[in-house]
């Protein structure tokens, strides 16, 4: 049986944006084949690749039927919806589905891009300062949410969802590169939640947990 889809991404390291897709696939018992011959940023500029993915971006997936999809959020949603764990991952009613999307939006617009700006250290000081403020404000929002009595996961208390996987994906590189022990101690509920999520076998494998946490932050 062919794999559910072929994933095109860099093979030099685990790209944070593919972690949530790999976890969703594992939870849905779907095989995702990573194209080990893919060479970013060379293959994505070829005529063949651009014919399928005109913007030339990664990650991207292609199914055996020829369905091609790019943009990490769309890919994760598609994979999450394609198996028996769809209700757990995307929500069991309209309210839950809306909340899942709300938290995914926070991860994709406030946490991940601002973390990238901070890590790259190539932007004007004012831009980096604004990114740091937005990044930490988003983490404070998540910390506050997880501090509610009895709160276990982001949306439901009895099971995690794509919201959890997306926030974890957005924190994957910051935890390795800018959130040192002093910063991590400021967000104890997030760290408890992270460790709890990484104890799920399918998630741990997708995120290659345990990761090496940052020792010295460049964000101070």
TrEMBL record:
Residues 2-87 form the GST N-terminal domain. GO terms for cellular component: cytoplasm; nucleus. Residues 93-220 form the GST C-terminal domain. It comes from the Eukaryota. GO terms for biological process: translational elongation. InterPro entries: EF-GSTs, Glutathione-S-Trfase_C-like, Glutathione-S-Trfase_C_sf, Glutathione_S-Trfase, Glutathione_S-Trfase_N, GST_C, Thioredoxin-like_sf. Keywords: Transferase. The keyword Transferase applies. GO terms for molecular function: transferase activity. SUPFAM superfamilies: GST C-terminal domain-like (SSF47616), Thioredoxin-like (SSF52833). PANTHER family: ELONGATION FACTOR 1-GAMMA, ELONGATION FACTOR EEF-1B GAMMA SUBUNIT, PUTATIVE (AFU_ORTHOLOGUE AFUA_1G17120)-RELATED. Belongs to the GST superfamily. This is Glutathione S-transferase. It comes from Aaosphaeria arxii CBS 175.79.
């Amino acid at each position: 049986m062919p794999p559910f889809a072929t994933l095109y991404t860099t093979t030099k390291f685990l790209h944070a944006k593919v972690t949530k897709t790999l976890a969703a696939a594992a939870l849905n018992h779907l095989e995702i084949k990573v194209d080990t011959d893919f060479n970013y940023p060379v293959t994505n500029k070829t005529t063949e690749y651009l014919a399928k993915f005109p913007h030339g971006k990664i990650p991207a997936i292609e199914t055996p039927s020829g369905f091609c999809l790019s943009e990490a959020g769309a890919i994760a949603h598609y994979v999450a919806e394609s198996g028996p764990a769809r209700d757990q991952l995307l929500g069991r009613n309209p309210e839950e589905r809306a909340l899942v999307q709300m938290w995914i939006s926070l991860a994709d617009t406030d946490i991940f891009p601002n973390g990238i700006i901070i890590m790259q250290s190539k932007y004007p000081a004012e831009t980096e300062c604004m990114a740091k403020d937005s990044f930490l404000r988003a983490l404070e929002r998540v910390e506050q949410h997880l501090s509610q009595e009895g709160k276990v996961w982001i949306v439901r208390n009895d099971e995690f969802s794509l919201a959890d996987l997306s926030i974890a994906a957005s924190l994957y590189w910051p935890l390795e590169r800018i959130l040192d022990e002093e910063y991590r101690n400021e967000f104890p509920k997030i760290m408890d939640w992270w460790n709890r999520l990484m104890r799920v076998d399918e998630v741990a494998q997708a995120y290659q947990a345990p990761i090496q946490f940052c020792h010295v932050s460049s964000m101070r």
